């Protein structure tokens, strides 16, 4: 459905926000994971044809959308991180406005979308009184107006309360049954139960692409659990990657990422997805450092 081939995006002073990224994406939910500044938003803006890559190709159903952006725009929905609403418009009026812009002429569809995002009871309420979660849900209804085949959502749960986050994740998961949904986030819990694949970015590069289960499986040999005396904690922390530390009645309980047993009494532990991705990120960083040292030598 969507193929990204060796895409590069360079900004001023030769800063590579996206560095030779290649991906082949099909229907389902894909989580685009990375710290702030990893290149996630730049990549999504190029897929949405808001900016052009410096080099490389992006193909949608075999058509180069860099050369022919209209090939995807009619079949694309996009919800940016900073999505504003017109406060004096009601939810229904807001959708009517965007429907006119997108050439959608089915009034019944607007009502169905408001029901899908659980805003049908607020259809005639002005958006000025909406919570952050309600505005995000109105934004997703806007993105779905043209029944897109590709939906791109940037940091969908930023600023939402736990109940709104859960509702929003469930909605995106259901949409992913039929369409390609690309969800950018640095919050792993947002996508661990809905994404079929994860694309991991670091400093503009794609450093991993696999299923959540595969990332967890690869990390199993490197996760350890141990309880240590407080006086030994600082020394151990200087030697290994401590992912979590929690004081209890027996000392300090640690979750550690390390290739072998990090200390006496350490036991193998089942990694969470977040721990697996942190372990993978550390491996990438250490590999880059070793490569730099080899070049310097």
UniProtKB/TrEMBL annotation:
InterPro entries reported in the protein's UniProt record: AAA+_ATPase, ABC_transporter-like_ATP-bd, ABC_transporter-like_CS, P-loop_NTPase
Organism domain of life: Bacteria
Alphabetized GO MF terms: ATP binding
ABC transporter domain: residues covered: 2-228
Segments crossing the lipid bilayer: none
Pfam families: ABC_tran
CDD domains linked to this entry: ABC_drug_resistance_like
Keywords from the named record: ATP-binding, Cell membrane, Membrane, Nucleotide-binding, Transport
Family classification: Belongs to the ABC transporter superfamily.
Protein name: ABC transporter ATP-binding protein
Organism annotation: Duganella aceris
Lineage, broadest ranks: Bacteria, Pseudomonadati, Pseudomonadota, Betaproteobacteria, Burkholderiales
